[in-house]
């Protein structure tokens, strides 16, 4: 199966409610192309990263503009149906039934996502192997550590063998060893899929992401490589270290977008 890109075209999105019929604009004319491999989505708290990921995985629909998953336009019901087969999603917080085994949890995810019942066991075993979690298959979910649980969540999202994997802050709350392990798993998955993850961690982007998008003031203010983002720092201080150069580039970018919006 080939690679699949994600295209976001001129998307507006507001959360609307009974008392806010026009809503609060979160995305305003956001456009972005996510290529195969691993891409990071960054942006300040409240910028709309989770909102944008929800639109990409068809949990919400834009009020204007469109989202394409491969050739499928998710604003149409048929396009949404086809797109969902191609998508796996790991939300920032997810609940798993503590009394189920890991194998049953991932088999169930496969079945929910359309894998025929007789193939679910094999699909689960394959997905667990992909995330280095085959040895956890017989464990009850309630006995897992945070890092193990995160890998099982990723396996559940992979159980129907999607071409695209979307992860919302996948390394939050993991200790440094587990974070490295999660990065290794995600990098491996990105070798044959389109992987998009949101993160606040500069090290995640530096070590893992071939490309990065920065969301600010309702749109993708930057898309390019990590090195290109870093170069925005226009390093006037030769003593500045690697990490802080990135923070500097990032701050300048956000300030520039804030001034023009
Ligand atoms: N269900 C909702 N109803 C109304 N407003 C919401 C809802 N979810 C998010 N928002 C608002 O939309 C804006 C974007 O939120 P979102 O969670 O997408 O940002 P984020 O970039 O993921 O933030 P963080 O980095 O803190 O996780 C915020 O102002 C938030 O308060």
UniProtKB/TrEMBL annotation:
Residues 6-242 form the ABC transporter domain. The keyword Flavoprotein does not apply. Keywords: ATP-binding, Nucleotide-binding, Transport. One of its GO terms (molecular function) is ATP hydrolysis activity. It comes from the Bacteria. PROSITE patterns: ABC_TRANSPORTER_1, ABC_TRANSPORTER_2. Belongs to the ABC transporter superfamily. This is ABC transporter ATP-binding protein. It comes from Sinosporangium siamense.
């Amino acid at each position: 199966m080939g690679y699949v890109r994600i295209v976001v075209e001129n998307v507006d999105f507001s959360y609307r409610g009974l008392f806010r019929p026009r809503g609060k604009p979160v995305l305003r004319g956001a456009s972005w192309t996510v290529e195969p491999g691993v891409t990071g989505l960054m942006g300040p708290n409240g910028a709309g990263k989770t909102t944008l990921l929800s639109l990409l995985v068809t949990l919400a629909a834009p009020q204007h503009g469109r989202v394409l998953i491969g050739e499928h336009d998710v604003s149409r019901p048929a396009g949404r149906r086809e797109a969902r087969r191609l998508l796996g999603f790991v939300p920032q917080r997810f609940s798993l039934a503590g009394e189920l085994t890991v194998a049953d949890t991932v088999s169930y995810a496969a079945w929910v996502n359309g894998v025929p019942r007789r193939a679910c066991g094999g699909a689960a075993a394959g997905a667990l192997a992909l995330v280095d979690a085959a040895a956890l298959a017989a464990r009850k979910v309630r006995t897992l550590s945070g890092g193990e649980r995160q890998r099982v969540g990723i396996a559940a999202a992979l159980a129907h063998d999607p071409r695209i994997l979307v992860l919302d802050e996948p390394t939050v709350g993991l200790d440094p060893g587990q974070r490295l392990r999660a990065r290794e798993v995600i990098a491996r998955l990105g070798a044959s899929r389109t992987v998009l993850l949101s993160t606040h961690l500069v090290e995640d982007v530096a070590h893992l992401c071939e490309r990065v998008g920065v969301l600010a003031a309702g749109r993708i203010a930057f898309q390019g490589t990590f090195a290109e983002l870093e170069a925005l720092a226009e390093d006037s201080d030769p003593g500045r270290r690697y990490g802080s150069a990135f923070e500097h580039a990032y701050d300048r970018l956000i300030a520039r977008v804030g001034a023009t919006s």
